[in-house]
Amino acid sequence: MTTPVELLVQGVGELVSLPEVFIRVNQAVDDPRGSAAQVGEIIAQDPGLTARLLRLANSPLYALTATVDTVARAVTVLGTQQIRALVLATSVTDTFEGLPNELVSMKNFWNHSLLCALCARALSRQARKGQPEVMFTAGLLHDIGELVIFSRLPELARKVLLLTLDSPEELAIHQAEQRVLGFDHGDVGGELAHLWQLPPILEECIRHHHAVERAEAFQAETALVHIANIAAQMAELKTLDPEQAPPISAAAWKLSGLDRAAVETAVTEAMEGIDEASKLFSPAGE
To answer: Within 10 A of 7 (CB to CB), how many other CB atoms are there?
Structure first.
């Protein structure tokens, strides 16, 4: 039996889809017979993506010691897994740009998403868990389910937003979604990741970033995204005081092995890197 979440995602799947170049890169990376050269050849056929990827590889976000002047070099230096994550990250922002939505500022949405991505990458490096660029992508996509809900269920989404504003309990968005919809944006985003055949680590991080204890195969990585989401809110508030943001779950602290100092470092790095990240990853036209 098809669930309400599956029906919702199937509907949005008819409106937006990932570009062919990502689908081919994704297949090549997963193919045991695939090679780094093959991945590079696929990307090189898309001039816009090639230019964007080279700008990214040569940006201060990576601080590589030598100039990366070809896609082949980028694949060699960064590796196929990281290249796939970056191709996905650059694709998704543009993919969702055309999705109808009148309830939220897309600029604010992507700003939070980028801050979460930067925090997730910084936390991954500190915890030595997960691949930093994969965690960057997980952070960037953690809230994509919200865009699906905003576009497909605008009236119910409006009720969710009003509930977060009016409730004396100070409900978070995902808690209000559960009350109004019976599911939350993590469920929706995870289902979209499944529909798009994204790597399982991304699907699990997106699906369970508000419920770390439900993660199975990638618990530590999901914990990193959970903490990064809180850290991103701190960065938005320009504070290093965790008391100003929602609490981090005990499970996330335990699974990540991180402490408050690590979060403060991630917040600082994110605030320093957000302007550069916005130039590279914001949707076309932003």
So the answer is: 11
